[in-house]
Amino acid sequence: MFLRVGRLGHMSAQPLDTSEHRSGALLDHLARRMRLRSESVLAPLGLRPRHLVALTVLRAGGGTGQQALATILEMDSTNIVGLLNDLEAKQLIERRRSPEDRRRHVVELTEDGAKRLSEAECALAGAEDEVLGALGPDERETLYELLSRASAGTAVNCTETICAGDDSL
Amino acid sequence: MFLRVGRLGHMSAQPLDTSEHRSGALLDHLARRMRLRSESVLAPLGLRPRHLVALTVLRAGGGTGQQALATILEMDSTNIVGLLNDLEAKQLIERRRSPEDRRRHVVELTEDGAKRLSEAECALAGAEDEVLGALGPDERETLYELLSRASAGTAVNCTETICAGDDSL
DNA sequence: AGGATCGTCTGTGCATCACCAACTATTTAT
DNA sequence: ATAAATAGTTGGTGATGCACAGACGATCCT
């Protein structure tokens, strides 16, 4: 008996969670292993793991202001500036002033950025093979799809929060 | 452009794999979001995210020496010491000398440790709801199962490496 | 005009972490 | 038995990541 109310079921009326399978620690563990390998692979491309995260988020939901980006990446906005400076210097992203609100910088992936991101993803195949070696191709795709949806969900949630300003955060 | 001669038979007729679906960046992104929330939730329990990672790994494949643990967690062994000191001071783990090789400290979860880990996982339900809100219960379980297998795979791989005597590391 | 907001820049302080060096206890090889 | 290698421990150092604060210009809102 599960009524899918909002996207955020804060009610948490789950009576018994069979066994508490929290993914947090595993996520942390695998992310670390992946990140360590990524650094060396990405270095020749002039990128660092965090750049890749930013590019990935931008590809998924581009055209966001920097503050929204800070919310999504959950980083301090002052540090976003440096991150975007790096990427803009390499012409992987563009900052354009929003026509509606000229204070705002709308950040978007350039073609070069999308290309570089793809290259990086290709280059990371080996790293992923090492870390996700226990999973077959289909399982990796499933994993990707789940992570992707979760990530996109947070983005939606963040922009909603910004637009609607409903949350008590 | 890119000839895919990968190790795994990706010979499917998909014209182009749209783009290489690398989970690394998403893993990083979600792990960060989860970790930030975890810290405040875990603080009352006297734990930090990294402790949880260690406990989780130990629960999955206990009875390992510290060096093996360092390999699995991909941390410097000197820093493992401090981590385990924390956990041992709280009686969440035990260091016992191995009977076969008395130099070795075999690290294992205590009952208290297992209990505390469960408590922590319960306490993290809210954090996970926020981060994985876009996924339903089944999907979260799938995610957990995939991450779990991937993590266990690395452990196996690491111990294999140790036992078999690696070359050219 | 006044106040709030977005982005930018600078700096400061704290935590993390890899690395080095030295030491003990123990095993293994000669 | 002696020497060398290994597991763990301790302490220190330096680079890095990151949150936070302060100040500024530009812009929006009222």
Automatic annotation (TrEMBL), chains A, B:
Q: Which residues form the HTH marR-type domain?
A: 20-152
Q: Which GO terms describe its molecular function?
A: DNA binding; DNA-binding transcription factor activity
Tree of life domain = Bacteria
Task: Provide this UniProt record's keywords sorted from A to Z.
Answer: DNA-binding
Keyword Membrane listed = no
Pfam families, A to Z: MarR (PF01047)
Q: Which PROSITE patterns match?
A: HTH_MARR_2
Q: Which SMART domains match?
A: HTH_MARR
InterPro entries linked: HTH_MarR-typ (IPR000835), MarR/SlyA-like (IPR039422), WH-like_DNA-bd_sf (IPR036388), WH_DNA-bd_sf (IPR036390)
GO terms in the biological process aspect are: response to stress
Protein name, UniProt field: DNA-binding MarR family transcriptional regulator
